[in-house]
């Protein structure tokens, strides 16, 4: 067991927590119009030169998959929470959403134009994140890109997320993890939310 595993909630606990909070979660962030301006700016900039297919990892209520689909980008969503998946399927019937554990995803080699991991790694044991990134990066074709959203902090440490325990990452550590799996970091940004937390986004591209 890793040093961080004891502080990381089990997937079953994460799923149960999001299932229980699904109605409130959807009310707060279940559509693009309800999320923060910086979130829209980060994903909008990434999507500007994006071609599909795209894998939306941790797609939740499906709003970002819907956003990409409305831009004419082929996208598939994956999430571990049945109630959020059910909402996504009802709200965006033209998109495939499937149940899955991001820790076990194995996209076909060089099959994807993009991977969106928007705050979907925050409940994952940090010791496992490099391997998750490696497998997702292998799914990107040359020129394909990944956008990772996360909570930034001075160190990798757990915090009291509103749904269930999450992890913060230093920006340099996350960019280093992406570079370690063969991606070139294109840009990185941080911003403060109204509740004072520091959000972050990194865009990285496969160049080989």
TrEMBL record:
Residues 54-144 form the Methyltransferase domain. InterPro entries: Methyltransf_25, SAM-dependent_MTases_sf. Keywords: Methyltransferase, Transferase. The keyword Transmembrane helix does not apply. GO terms for molecular function: methyltransferase activity. One of its GO terms (biological process) is methylation. SUPFAM superfamilies: S-adenosyl-L-methionine-dependent methyltransferases. This is Methyltransferase family protein. It comes from Amnibacterium kyonggiense.
